[in-house]
Amino acid sequence: MRVTVSAPHDTPKLLVLAVDDEPHGLDQLKHCLEANAYVGRVLPAVDASEALRLLGSDDDLIKVRKQRGLPPVDAVFADINMPGLSGMEMSRVFASLNPAPVLVFVTGHAEEAVEAFDLGAVDYVLKPARQERIDKAVSRVVEKIEAASGHRRPSEPERDRDNEVIPVELAGTTKLIPRSSVRWVEAQGDYARLFTTEGSHLVRIPLAQLEERWAKAGFVRIHRSFLVSLPLITELRMGQGGYQVVIGNEEKVLPVSRRHTRELKDKLVGSSRLG
Question: What is the DSSP string of the chain?
Answer without folding.
Answer: ----B---TTSPPEEEEEE-SSHHHHHHHHHHHHTBTTEEEEEEESSHHHHHHHHTS--HHHHHHHHTT--SSSEEEE-S--SSS-HHHHHHHHHTSSS-PEEEEEES--TTHHHHHHTT-SEEEESSP-HHHHHHHHHHHHHHHHHHHT---TTS-SS-SS--EEEEEETTEEEEEEGGGEEEEEEETTEEEEEESS-EEEES--HHHHHHHTGGGTEEEEETTEEEEGGGEEEEEEETTEEEEEETTTTEEEE--HHHHHHHHHHHHHTT---
